[in-house]
Amino acid sequence: MAYRLYGPRNRNLHLLAGVIAAGLSAAFFKHKTWRFLFGGAAAVELGVAAYRAFQRKQPAETTETPVSESLQSEVVDGVRMKWEEHGDAAGIPVVLVHGFPTCPRLWRFVIPRLAFSGARCLAWEMVGFGSSWPESFQRDISVAAQADYLYAWLRHMNINKAIFVGHDLGGGVVQRLAIKHPGYCIGLALIDSVAYVNWPLPLVRFARSRSAIVGRLPLFLLKNIFVSALVAVGHDKKRRGMESMEIHWRNYNHDKGPAIFLKQLKSFENKDTLEIAGKLSKIKAPVKVIWGEMDRLDIESGRKLAAEFGAELTVIPGAGHYTPEDHPEEIANAIKDLLSQTEENEQVKSIMKQ
Q1: Does residue 141 contact residue 154 with C-beta atoms inside 8 Å?
Q2: Distance (Å, whole) CA 172 – CA 193
Q3: Which residues of the chain have pLDDT under 70?
Q4: Fewer Cβ neighbours under 10 Å: the N or C end of the chain?
Q5: What is the pLDDT of residues 258-279, one digit of tens each?
Q6: Sign for the pseudo-dihedral over CA of 235, 239, 243, 245
C-alpha cells in the first residue's frame, strides 16, 4: 500500500498509530531490532500527526521579504567560522547568535527592521551548527566552547563593543561571553534562551539516551522528528514554520545529518548555564528578556533571568519558541530600544568613534 507521508489522512489515526508504535518500542526495549523498527514507526506517525495538526486553518499571514543571504567565511584560530553581515559598516555592532537546530537565517526577518537604525548586524553561526557542521568533528561544540569561539571571532573582526542578541542556545552563549568579557557587552537581548536548568528538554534527553539509534536514523525519519520539533511545536505561524523547516533542514539533509544531529544533542549540558547562575547581575548593560508565551522552555526561567538582571520580561502572547521568525517586529523593537539606550551613552559613543 502506498504511504503518502503528507497526504490528507486523519490526524487522529496518525496519533493513535504513533502511540501504539511507541508503546511497542518500549515493550521490546531488550530487542534492538524491534525497538528500532517500532521507534522509527512512532517517529513517523507522530511527526505526521503533528504536521497535520499544524495544517489546521489559520488566519492569513503577512508576506514579508527577508534580508538576502550573504554568508561570509574565514578561518579564525584554525576554525572555519561563518556569518552574515548587513547594515551600516560604521554602525554599532549587533551580534546575533542563533540556537538549535537553526542557523543565521533565523534572523532574516529581524535584520531588515534594523536597517534604518544605523546598526551593523552580524549574524554569527555557531561552530558545528548550520552550514558549519563539518567543524563539529573532533571539536567541542558545547555552549561554553561556543562562547570562546565567539570571542576569538570578535577579536578577528576587531569588534570590542557590541550589543549581543541570543536565541535558544545562542542565549547561553552570549550570557557566558558577557560574564567572561564584560567590557565587550553594551547591550544584551535574551530571546527564549537556555538558562539555569531549563534545558535540555525531556525529549532531547530521551533522544540522547537512544544515541545508537538516533545516529543511524534514515533521513526521512530524522526529517519527521525535525517537522515535529521545529514546525508543529516551535511555531505559531504556519507559513513561517514551513519555510523555516525548509531553510534549516538543508543543513541536515545529507548522509552525515543524523550523526551531526546526535553530536549536537550530546553537546547540550546545563552545567554551562548553571556555572554562571547568580553572576548575571554583574553585567552592567541594558538587558531585554523576551519569551514566547507557549514556549516549551520554562517561562519561569525567563522571569528568573529578568529578575536577576533587574529587567522586565516581555511575553509574546500565543508565540512558540521560534519568535525571531514568527514575531520579528517584537524582537526588532527590543533591539532598537537597546540601540537607543546605547546611542545615548556618551562613553560608548566616544569609544565607537575611535
Answers
A1: no
A2: 7
A3: 1-63, 346-354
A4: N
A5: 999 999 999 999 999 999 999 9
A6: positive
Q: What is the pLDDT of residue 349?
A: 56
The maximal CA–CA distance of the chain, rounded, in angstroms, is: 71
Q: Which sequence spans correspond to the domains of the chain?
A: 73-199+266-353
pLDDT at 217: 85
Grid cell for residue 239: 507559513
Taking the CA atoms of residue 113, residue 114, residue 116 and residue 122 in that order, the dihedral angle to the nearest 10 degrees is -140
What is the pLDDT, as a whole number, of residue 216? 86
**Which letter does DSSP use for residue 201 in this model?**
-
And the C-alpha cell for 166? 541570543
Distance CA 251, CA 159 (A): 28
Cell of 204: 532531547
| pLDDT of res. 7 | 43
The CATH number corresponding to 73-199+266-353 among 3.40.50.720, 3.40.50.1000, 3.30.70.100, 3.40.50.1820 equals 3.40.50.1820
As given in the structure block, the three cell numbers for residue 141 are 561544540
Residues 51-68: b if buried by 16+ CB within 10 A, e if exposed: bbebeeeeeeeeeeebbe
Starting at the edge strand that comes first in sequence, how are the strands of the sheet with 287-292 ordered?
71-76, 79-87, 119-124, 92-97, 162-168, 185-193, 287-292, 313-316
At residue 238, the pLDDT reads 85
| pLDDT for the residue numbered 41 | 57
